[in-house]
Design goal:
alpha+beta, seven-stranded mixed β-sheet, about 10% strand
Length: about 425
């Protein structure tokens, strides 16, 4: 009987210890948007779990659902996700829920060498809002110029530095203007209503000295600079491959890799495909440069922490791991993209496989956001609505439905109405 009781007691102790071990197991949940980055995180998460003992649950959704699920989780305080991917236009909206964690305390305790591995301009662009940090860059992208170096060298052309030069070179390589051109079209435009049109046109607007808003959030599209920029954009459509009113960025890439065009303004996020000789027969003859006008558009994402996470330390452990030098470099084995860290980007081995990296980091000196006064300022209007209103007007000018002047007048009124709708003007 004593022996039986002893066995029962030992079994009870083992069960108790097992329960404690299970209850103390650390676990975090992460919301990611479907992207090469998500593939990287899925591929490497086993490494993190083995290194730290922290179980990671990854949920990958589409772009729109990333915002819907993320903002709902923050507004409601339900804490379905410990970490969230945040597209750079969303940062102000997320911060204003009051549930996005300020990282400053963690950063104060962080290894200085770790933080120094980020380019300051990159770290600020993705994580800084009103003087506080809310995330680390997790996917870096900006607009750059892709061009056929063999054709440019053959005909004595250099990468354009202004948008006027861009249109001149586009005409030279368009057979309807120059029958001797070795390609049919000079460029391809991703001018679909909304994100495509606005993303392609804003760098022109800035390059010609214009802006959508002034520092006081007055709409400034009724200016000579804005008109010149839109007229130049409409002019460039004469040199574009077909579908410029409906095409999106992947269609541009297809036109380039099919050998139909000489150059394109596009996101460096597509450079991995363009540099792949399996996907692009002209990969060895592809070069990269800063976009004309020298005011590129910021894209990309931050990784941020939900303030309501039940385990902030584990969440930060994953954040610094995912954005650290080892994972940044190892991720290139899964997907070729611009490294989020300057300490990795400067590695000669990395430069050999990411030949556009210096161009991207140079561009961050003049990087701008979709609504440029968002830089450290208060959010005024929903970014998605702003994109649709401005992008639609630009598209209507591009496709000849409205004159450039009328399209800008429409955009001016529509965005002013949007401001009034949200109580700001």
């Amino acid at each position: 009987m004593k022996k039986y009781l002893l066995v029962c007691l030992i079994s009870l102790v083992i069960l108790t210890l097992s329960f404690v071990a299970v209850s103390q197991e650390k676990e975090i949940s992460i919301l990611l948007t479907g992207s090469p980055l998500a593939d990287v995180m899925e591929t490497l998460q086993d490494d993190f779990e083995k290194e730290t003992g922290i179980k990671v649950n990854v949920e990958i959704v589409g772009y729109e659902d990333t915002h819907t699920k993320g903002i709902l989780d923050l507004v409601s305080g339900t804490n379905n996700y410990d970490l969230l991917m945040v597209d750079n236009p969303w940062i102000a909206e997320y911060v204003q829920t009051g549930n996005l964690l300020v990282l400053d305390e963690f950063m104060a305790k962080e290894d200085p060498e770790y933080l120094a591995g980020f380019d300051k301009a990159v770290l600020d662009a993705y994580g800084l809002y009103e003087g506080k940090y809310y995330g680390y860059p997790i996917m870096l992208t900006t607009t750059i110029l892709f061009y056929r170096s063999d054709l440019f060298e053959q005909y004595g052309k250099k990468a354009p530095e202004t948008w006027d030069e861009f249109n001149e070179i586009a005409k030279f390589f368009t057979q309807s203007f120059n029958p001797e051109s070795p390609v049919k079209y000079g460029i391809s435009i991703a001018g679909e209503r909304g994100d495509g049109a606005i993303s392609q046109w804003l760098p022109l607007l800035w390059g010609y000295g214009g802006s959508v808003f002034d520092k006081d959030w007055n709409v400034t599209l009724n200016t000579p600079e804005a008109l010149k920029a839109l007229e130049a954009f409409v002019e460039s459509a004469q040199c574009s491959a077909p579908g410029f009113g409906t095409n999106y960025f992947p269609e541009q890439v297809a036109h380039f890799t099919n050998g139909e065009i000489a150059m394109m303004e596009n996101w460096d996020a597509f450079a991995g495909d363009v540099a792949d000789p399996v996907k692009n027969p002209y990969a060895e003859n592809t070069a990269y440069a800063s976009i004309p006008g020298k005011y590129p558009l910021l894209g990309g994402w931050a990784l941020s922490i939900n303030k309501n996470s039940k385990d902030l330390d584990s969440a930060y452990t994953f954040l610094r791991w995912a954005c650290g030098p080892e994972v940044t470099k190892k991720s290139l084995e899964v997907s070729i993209s611009t490294p989020i860290r300057i300490d990795v980007a400067q590695d000669p081995e990395v430069k050999a496989i990411v030949p556009w990296v210096d161009v991207v980091y140079e561009e961050f000196k003049n990087i701008r956001k979709y609504a440029e006064t968002y830089q450290g300022g208060q959010i005024l209007i929903p970014e998605a609505e702003y994109h649709v209103l401005l992008g639609t007007a630009i598209n209507e000018a591009l496709t000849g439905q409205l004159s450039a002047k009328d399209a800008l007048a429409k955009a001016q009124k529509d965005i002013e109405d949007l401001l009034k709708k949200h109580g700001y003007k």
